[in-house]
Amino acid sequence: MVPKNLLLTLQDFKKEKWFYIISAAFIIINIIMMAQANYYFNLVPFALLIILYTIFALDKLIFLIVFFTPLSIPLREFLPHTSVDMSLPTEPLLFGVMLLFLFKLLVEKNFDKKILKHPVSIVIYLNLTWIFITSLTSTMPLVSFKFFIARCWFVVVFYLMATLVFKKYNFIKTYFWCYIIPMIFVIGFTLYRLSGYGFFDEKAAHEVMNPIYNDHTSYAAVLAMLCPVLFGLLFYSGYPVYKKIISFAVLVIFIIAIIFSYTRASWLSMAAALAFWILLMLKIKLKTIFISAFILIALFFAFKTEIVMRLEKNRQDSSTNLKEHIQSISNVTSDASNVERLNRWSCAIRMFEAKPVFGWGPGTYMFKYAPFQLSYEKTIISTNAGNRGNAHSEYLGPLSESGLLGMVTFTLIVLFTIYTGAKVYRNAINKKIKLMALILNLSLVTYYVHGILNNFLDTDKASALFWGFTAMIVALDIYHNKLSETAA
Prior knowledge:
By secondary structure, this protein is mainly α. Helix content is 69%, strand content 1%.
């Protein structure tokens, strides 16, 4: 008689035989491929893991991508002469996950309609639709459709999929730390390289974060967005003391990193977030804030000549001296960075005037702005090659590339998100939800203000936070705004 244990073992082997057959076949094929110096087959298990995560563990997949995002490196670092660039490993993952998610959505047809019908989602659709239309009319369709597809994978993964994940409230904090932890290593890498220059070399500080971040401005923008998060966690009720100590230590590290980034725009953005917090504390209505902002913008344009003449008296260039560096913010005469930014903005406006309806096409600014430069507005860092960034504005960039509606639809995303976040903050019963809404509002305000001076939403690093934090606010509004005081 065959022992019972042996029978069970044989049955288990029959059930699992295909696992062993497939594993053995993979090992044999991989050995053959590697013997021919082809190592790409090693990626097959990783690809299968991504597919399984997409089907069965959406949250883990989102967190995996977010963790890799601060550490991603451009393809051109490995293939300098390639005509196509992308961030590795995140953007290939984002593209693949977007396709798998859309396929799953078509098959199952059960995505939460509360997300799809939310006002923030609707204005995002409007923006994407207009980007698609202006890609059809683009002067460089290939560039524009690449821009459109990239924007789609950022929105699908970091907004639509993430909002669904944030139905579980604690996953919001998980998302934070999935980005913050690898960012600590980026800061360590940056400060270590900067230490070789004695920390006080401003020119070196602009580049030491390469190749992980393009330059100091995108690096500092991300740090500025995360500072309100870390600061807010210090006051989060129910958060363990040891986690608050860790949050405080990391916050100190982030502030040091911002100081040594020598990025004035990030300092301005944090000051703006502080001002917005004060306005919320004073319970000033958003309508009043928006109208006041509109009046200030109108007054600026009405008295632009007088303001510029006043600013031209400031001759303080950027400096490693903190006081002098702050004073240089308003120097529009001799500070090359400031003057070049004005040059780019002027080009964007002239491009809009030439094509006010459809613009030149999404993503085309850097290829088309050169003829719109005026000789007397150029600086020592001006170029016709389009290799020193875009329009340096999340608002004027779309204005030149997608016409008036390009800027309007993006601005609507900003306004609707601020409104939703403020509504959650003011109506939340649960103090944790109230604080979380405040944290997210302030974090996004840092980018909304930074976006006046720079633009990074074509990168995975800024998009993961911008769209992710937007998704968190929408999730709070849909799923968590009515939670009782003891919930969350």
